[in-house]
Amino acid sequence: MGNEKKVTSKKAASAASKVLRDGRTSTTSKTAAGSA
Q1: Which pLDDT does position 33 carry in this prediction?
Q2: Residues 16, 29: Cα–Cα separation, whole Å
Q3: What is the DSSP letter of 22?
Q4: Any residues with CB less than 8 A from the CB of 12 and at least 6 apart, and which?
Q5: How far apart are CA 15 and CA 25, in angstroms?
Q6: For residues 1-27, average pLDDT
Q7: What pLDDT, in 10s, does the model give residues 21-34?
Q8: At how many degrees (to 10) do helices 27-35 and 2-21 cross?
Q9: Residue 26 gets which letter from DSSP?
């Protein structure tokens, strides 16, 4: 279970950084990524 959580967090962080790097994303998307 611990490993699964780490993998999920890694994916979430990766997706969040992608969103934050993409200047075309909306403010709502950035907020959602930040809280993920």
Answers
A1: 58
A2: 9
A3: -
A4: 36
A5: 12
A6: 70
A7: 766 656 666 566 56
A8: 160
A9: -
